[in-house]
Amino acid sequence: MKVTTIDFDNISSEDLSKRLSEFHGHLGPYLVLGAKMGLYAKKTLSSSPFEISAEITMPLKPPLSCTIDGIQFTSGATTGKANLKVSDGLPIKIVFYKGTEGISIIPKEDILEEIRHQVGHEDLEMLAGQIMDKDNNDLFEVQKWTKQ
């Protein structure tokens, strides 16, 4: 059986949003934030879902934990393949790596505050769309990371 995967290099924002919603059950800002982090990691480290690993630290409570689904969906790092580890805690930090080299990603506090302010309102899909359209530099900080 031939398996086809999503071509994340050429997917439109609208199609990505639709597929994220189908996967997660609805479209929300934390889901999109995680998806953008996963896309960034794939472009930076490896397009293979078998070469990239991720370690996530964040409070494991919805809606913030919806970020994890976005990361799994786009990066290909999953709990089932055992290349995704999730820890409950603060500060929020996502480390993606291939071998001993990688990147750490930390969401910017002003974006998290903007999302927190909107959670509970009907316009979450609109906010998700706005986050999809934002530049990564406006959403998160990235630093090189080396396994010790």
Observed structural traits:
148 residues, alpha+beta, 60s Ribosomal Protein L30, Chain: A, five-stranded mixed beta sheet, 5 strands
Describe this structure as you would to a colleague.
By secondary structure, this protein is an alpha+beta fold. The protein is 42% helix and 21% strand. A 5-stranded mixed beta sheet has the order 2-1-3-4-5. Helix 2 (29-44) packs parallel to helix 3 and helix 2 (29-44) packs parallel to helix 5. The termini are far apart. The relative contact order is 0.19.
Task: Please sum up the structure shown.
With 148 residues, this protein is of the alpha+beta class. It has helices at 13-24, 29-44, 66-75, 109-118, 124-133, 136-139, and strands at 53-58, 84-88, 93-98, 101-107, 140-146.
* Main sheet strand line-up: 2-1-3-4-5
Label the CATH architecture.
Answer: 2-Layer Sandwich
What is the approximate shape? globular
Multimeric organization:
single chain
Pfam family, one: FmdE
Domain Formylmethanofuran dehydrogenase subunit E: 23-108
Protein name: FmdE, Molybdenum formylmethanofuran dehydrogenase operon
InterPro entries: FmdEsu_dom, tRNA_methyltr_O
Please write out the topology.
Elements: H1 13-24, H2 29-44, E1 53-58, H3 66-75, E2 84-88, E3 93-98, E4 101-107, H4 109-118, H5 124-133, H6 136-139, E5 140-146
Parallel strand pairs: 1-2
Antiparallel strand pairs: 1-3, 3-4, 4-5
